[in-house]
Amino acid sequence: MRAKKFTSEGIVISRKNYSEADRILVIYTNDYGKLFVMAKGVRKLKSKKRGHLEVFSHIKFSASKGSGIDVMTEVESINDFHKIKKDLKKVALAYYFMEVVFKLTSQEEKNKELFRLILNYLDKLDIDKNLRTLRFSFIHDLLVLLGYWPVNRIMANPDKVLEEVLERQVYTIRIGKRLLS
């Protein structure tokens, strides 16, 4: 249970524009799991929060518990993974990681190991060149961590296993496959 005002470390999984100047962010946090947070005024050109809230950015933020959705009050970047953002293939893979995490996790289900796994793979993506292996390893490690796949069993086709777990296709998988081939 979160306090009325809280601070946490998190990774921005997705964002959606809301009204004229706001955004609704989905942040996977170290302390609370997946949270939906309103960032008010962040789309204004003079907003100080604007640059910190890009997808797959590692941030430290404060928020207040709202009646429906939490409202972000402060934010600072810990790591914006700028090397990833300079390479289109890496950006596509980072978005893929975020989409898979979004679809496989429930709101407010805390999992510190999952938070570390996401950060670890973003760090690897920042420096690694073998993106296909990294993608397969991420799917395998994530499915094992969440209990969808046995630890010692080899995964021949990670994409197929992931689709069976989700019971639908991951949208960014098509983009990722094309870019990585």
TrEMBL record:
> Residues in domain DNA replication/recombination mediator RecO N-terminal?
5-80
- State the GO CC annotations: bacterial nucleoid
HAMAP family per record: RecO
Say which species the protein is native to: Candidatus Woesebacteria bacterium RIFCSPHIGHO2_01_FULL_37_10
What is the name of the protein in this document? DNA repair protein RecO
Listed A to Z, the keywords are: DNA damage, DNA recombination, DNA repair
- The organism's superkingdom is given as Bacteria
Tell me, in a sentence or two, what this protein's role is.
Involved in DNA repair and RecF pathway recombination.
- Matching Pfam families, A to Z? RecO_C, RecO_N
Q: Which GO terms describe its biological process?
A: DNA recombination; double-strand break repair
User: What is this protein's gene name?
Assistant: recO
Q: Which family does it belong to?
A: Belongs to the RecO family.
